[in-house]
Amino acid sequence: MPEAMVAPNEIAYNAAISACEKGRQWQLALNLLSLMPDVRVAPVTITFNAAISACEKDGQWQLALNLLLSRMPEARVVPNKITYNAAISAFEKGGQWQLALNLLSLMPEARVAPDEITHSAATSACEKGGQWQMALNLLTVMPEVRVVPNEITYSASMSACEKGGQWQLALNLLIVMPEARVQPNEITYNAAISACQKGGQWQLALGLLSSMTAACLRSLFLRSCSCSATP
């Protein structure tokens, strides 16, 4: 672009960094971000979101943290929900459950409301860190902050219980999912069955397998009926 006497602007840099993020090229994304001040192009929230997401996809949680807590304040750029979600996901992939929870707790002070993506990432971080109590606590407080749990949140919570040897709690979560209008899926059933297996509850594991098969057949039947009804 410079050779054609056309200077790259904010939109061009944002698009290029987003392309690097999608291509899992975090080094290139950060290099482009670093070049922007030299060409007098100011990065904005979208720019940093793409850069943090690029770091998140490759598990570079330290770099994501630096972008959020150091580079963004230096550039006087305010993070938004997407920024926080990307950073928490980076901490989750990096096994940093404490940082994930700390960042989640800072969001209200920054006047940024967490959503189901935020809580799912934080819950997954707790699950990977073996913190089943923390995972359940996050699931419990979600209605209080007007966030509706989804399949990912329940799956992560059940996996946390499974890893912690809490088969009763995992099974209870599976039972209450329909009441919360969340349909159990293959991942949630697998987590519950694995929890029962680790707890020596083979009868319950077989019962869940039977329920899983019935639910799958029911889903296939309804899908078939839906397709048949479509003109």
From TrEMBL:
InterPro entries in the cross-refs: PPR_rpt, TPR-like_helical_dom_sf
Coiled-coil intervals: none
Transmembrane feature ranges: none
PPR repeats mapped onto the chain: 9-43, 44-79, 80-114, 150-184, 185-219
NCBIfam families in UniProt: PPR
Keywords on record: Repeat
Gene3D superfamilies with a match to the protein in the record: Tetratricopeptide repeat domain
Pfam families hit by this protein: PPR_2, PPR_3
Name of protein: Uncharacterized protein
Annotated organism of origin: Polarella glacialis
